[in-house]
Write a structure and sequence with these properties.
CATH topology: Thiol Ester Dehydrase, Chain A
Distance between the termini: 25 Å
Number of helices: 3
CATH class: Alpha Beta
Number of domains: 1
Number of strands: 7
Helix content: 10-25%
Strand content: 35-45%
Order of helices and strands: EHEEHEEEEH
């Protein structure tokens, strides 16, 4: 797949299996396939989950930030491998830290650097930022499988 960066969610959905309402990458700003990625997530002000988390002080849950980071890293890995139809399963999160809240209307920068990549296991150092403020960071682990063997 020949991709020009930046690219939008239409390209993201050609690579990732995620679909609405669980696509947490709005666009990819830059990507060195198999090495690193910078992507963005536009956090809608009317996102339904804010009705319950928290109605008077809406905050994007940390688990959603971790998922967005995993999707960005998986994009980087899958583009490198030309693995259309492959699935990246998040299998571990180490050293997760949450520093600042993500609020409705924010644009979150999702950064991942792939630090280990074998046939099935990948490890990435990830960070989520709003502007210059670090919101979350972690080491994430993923196992790759084709969609048929994962069923």
């Amino acid at each position: 797949m020949d991709i020009t960066y930046p690219c939008g969610q239409d390209v993201v959905q050609q690579v990732l299996p995620h679909r609405d309402p669980f696509v947490w990458v709005s666009r990819v700003v830059e990507c060195a396939p198999g090495e690193s990625i910078v992507a963005e997530l536009d956090v809608p002000e009317d996102l339904d989950l804010f009705r319950g988390h928290f109605p008077d002080h809406p905050v994007l849950p940390g688990v959603i930030l971790m998922e967005a980071l995993a999707q960005a890293a998986s994009f980087c890995i899958l583009v490198d491998r030309g693995a259309e139809g492959a699935l990246g399963f998040l299998t571990g999160i180490d050293k997760a830290k949450f520093r600042n809240q993500v609020r409705p209307g924010d644009v979150v920068t999702l950064e991942a650097r792939i630090v280990k990549s074998s046939r099935r296991l990948c490890v990435a150092e990830v960070r989520a930022l709003v502007g210059d403020a670090l919101c979350a960071s972690a080491t994430q682990k993923y196992i790759l499988a084709d969609a048929e063997s994962a069923a």
